[in-house]
Amino acid sequence: MDMHTVVVGPSGTTAEDVIAVARGHARVELSAEALDALAAAREVVDALAAKPEPVYGVSTGFGALATRHIGPDLRGRLQRNIVRSHAAGMGPRVEREVVRALMFLRLKTLASGHTGVRPGTARTMAAVLNAGITPVVHEFGSLGCSGDLAPLSHCALTLMGEGDAEGPDGVIAPAGELLAAHGIEPVELREKEGLALLNGTDGMLGMLIMALADLHRLYTSADITAALTLEALLGTDKVLAPELHAIRPHPGQGASADNMRRVLAGSGLTGHFQADAEPRVQDAYSVRCAPQVAGAGRDTLAYARLVADRELASAVDNPVVLADGRVESNGNFHGAPVAYVLDFLAIVAADLGSIAERRTDRLLDKNRSHGLPPFLADDAGVDSGLMIAQYTQAALVSEMKRLAAPASVDSIPSSAMQEDHVSMGWSAARKLRTAVDNLTRIVAVELYAATRAIELRAGLTPAPASRAVIDALRATGVEGPGPDRFLAPDLAGADAFVRTGALVAAVEPVTGPLA
Questions:
Q1: Is residue 185 located within the same domain as residue 213?
Q2: Would the pTM count as exceeding 0.90?
Q3: Of residues 56, 219, 340, 391, which has the active-site annotation?
Q4: Which domain covers residue 294, as residue numbers?
Q5: Please, which residues have CB within 8 angstroms of residue 374's CB and are 6 or more apart in sequence?
Q6: For this structure, is 285 an active site residue?
Q7: Which reaction(s) are listed as its catalytic activity (predicted)?
Q8: Could you tell me if 128 and 96 are in contact, meaning their C-beta atoms sit under 8 angstroms apart?
Q9: Residue closest to 142 by CA, chosen among 337, 400, 414, 436
């Protein structure tokens, strides 16, 4: 078995596995233990299906229609119908990586042995993932309760050979044709299987896991750009001393301060006050309090990772097959735990973007930049420098503040008041993805401004780590100080430098691994 295969078993999976499948297109394989667990749970469902007593999801309707008993002759149709009717999404297509994460996480729950799905149905889902077939899933349709119903239904529809999907070549085609082209037989759903394929928090969880990976990189990147700005403003690094952060022992704060201190090691700019200026004993909050703000966000990430790990260890379905053979209804599909942290992350991401923008603005204002030219322009007045780059950054920050409004405080009753309180976790996840994207751009603008400002400090030697960042960024074609030019390509280059992790990679050979 090669290193690109992820084995799914009844004990759950890891965040790294989710990202490997979603973004790295790793192959998926069901373990022998998973197949045994699937078979054992299916025996329980088959036994219940043979009895005259109604069992929710096996021999009844769904939601507000659960009062109707469904006879054996209609149960296959019942399971097909729930998929077809619930595949009611609308709006733009959801990104390929999100759909792959959603399908993989659903497969993880199936492999737990608590859903009653047949082993063959789980094998088909694995085969679809391995073939690179991605169901067309739409933006709107999940309330984050009873699971991500519409998104998961569109995925289940593909397993049935219906609806549309994207092939490995990126072309949209009928799902049945894509399955046939890869030798995959469509699934004929049996009792409980349609419901089990739909009833999970998989979409919101997949987006949470990927956002956590992206935000970890961005928080490290923001520590670096904050250090570069401090240096460009001739600020003091004394506020980063470990003993100052030890007396307020929030772990994230200490980690951010340590990152900044290591980036600034050996700088000839920090604490360098111009002879004709009044001595500064303190820097502005956006510079001095950078570790406190970024650190609080880091601690929020840590809590969100705890929630994600707990959800990864869960088997979310309704009803579930228990180890003692009982099949019980439950409310574990409610997305509140995941929705809350998705909203919390949007809040801290917005604040990180906000403080980064304030530092950028300080670099551009000649009244607060301690000797730098207005807007870091070559010939201020003839040149506008980075004036409008800050406008763009401010627009992104403003959008992030709107995205920080929590989705999870909303609830619209559905299913004839049977589902009368929902989490809106899918909506929280969707807006967080946009926020993460915007935060990347905001950090990139600060990087672009800070590196230019450092280069404008003629005669002063930046820290070795700062020099490494500047050299690596310039090597990508992003230019340094000079007369005005078409700025968008440089900003796009800085964005790519942050987004791909090149910023962190440029620093760590000098600083060692950063938190």
A1: no
A2: yes
A3: 56
A4: 207-410+423-471+501-511
A5: 364, 365, 366, 380, 385
A6: no
A7: L-histidine = trans-urocanate + NH4(+)
A8: no
A9: 414
